[in-house]
Design goal:
- With 259 residues, the protein is of the alpha/beta class.
- The protein folds into two domains: 43 residues; 194 residues, TIM Barrel.
- 48% of the residues lie in helices and 12% in strands.
- It is built from ten helices and nine strands.
- Strands 2, 3, 4, 7, 8 and 9 form a six-stranded parallel β-sheet that branches.
- Helix 1 runs antiparallel to helix 2 and helix 6 runs parallel beside helix 7.
- The radius of gyration is 21 Å and the shape is globular.
- The mean pLDDT is 92.
- The structure holds zinc ion (ZN).
- The site of zinc ion has 5 residues, from loops.
């Protein structure tokens, strides 16, 4: 995939060529309109598809022949549902990754401490997870990510290296922030659709169809059905010979800075 800023330069150069040639006929106007539509489609796809790699290198899965994969949870910690998820993980001796919101960590540092004590990886998922996050300027994005790493550090004494963009959207200000803070961006290869799907059996069957060695599975621990879905996934994974491993082990990258 061609990276930003080259893709922007090429699209803009095409635009300029059309303007310089002059739009003299309806034929040229149609080609010009197609070029604008094509450019917009590329930019929207590049921003909204977390694995596009247009702005940032994003790890979405790992190439391996071993039947191992990683379970990741977003949007917690939740005072009830995350606890239930942690209990299920402990019963099954599985280590997961929690991409947490800084704002929720400030309310529930004890849950983060339990995650750490039980061997799970804690990672950055922004402070507010605002619907407007993608429109934030660089300074505000940086503040969101720095504050989240700081509150996690205050709770467990470690600074996360892994980050997942809210809604999976990437753009130039976020790319600058990631580079500045030296974070590793993590996407997913299986989106469970647990926030919209209501039938756990269908969810698990969908996940099973997409599972391959090295998969990274996206779940949410702030949902009432999180524990039920997790239990079913563990059972299905075990039946199919899959081992659930922590992200740092799957990627062979340290989950925290050494400070
Ligand atoms: Zn999220």
């Amino acid at each position: 995939m061609m990276r930003y800023p080259w893709i922007h330069i090429i699209l803009f150069a095409g635009f300029i060529v059309f303007v310089l040639l002059g739009i003299r006929s309806s034929f040229w106007l149609v080609i010009f309109a197609c070029w604008i539509a094509f450019s917009l489609a590329i930019l929207i796809w590049g921003s909204s598809s977390v694995c596009s790699g247009m702005y940032i290198k994003v790890i979405c899965r790992v190439n391996t022949d071993e039947k191992k994969m990683t379970i990741t949870f977003d949007d917690g910690p939740h005072p009830v549902y995350t606890i239930a998820v942690l209990d299920t993980l402990r019963q099954n001796n599985i280590k997961a990754v929690f991409f947490v919101k800084g704002r929720e960590v400030a309310k529930h540092p004890d849950i983060i401490q339990r995650m750490d004590e039980e061997g799970h990886v804690i990672a950055n998922h922004s402070w507010s997870h605002s619907h407007w996050f993608d429109l934030f300027p660089y300074a505000r994005m940086r503040q969101e990510l720095e504050n989240t790493n700081l509150i996690i550090h205050n709770a467990i004494g470690k600074t996360p290296r892994f980050f997942r963009p809210p809604y999976g959207v990437t753009n130039p200000p976020l790319a600058k922030t990631i580079k500045k803070l030296n974070l590793t961006t993590i996407g997913w290869s299986i989106r469970s659709m647990d926030t919209v799907g209501k039938d756990p059996e269908k969810l698990v069957s969908r996940i099973k169809n997409k599972m391959v060695p090295g998969s990274i599975l996206l779940l949410h621990d702030n949902l009432s059905q999180a524990e039920d879905i997790l239990g079913r996934i563990i059972e299905m994974g075990n039946e199919n010979g899959y081992k659930f491993v922590p992200l740092d082990e799957l990627l062979n990258i340290k989950a925290y800075d050494s400070n």
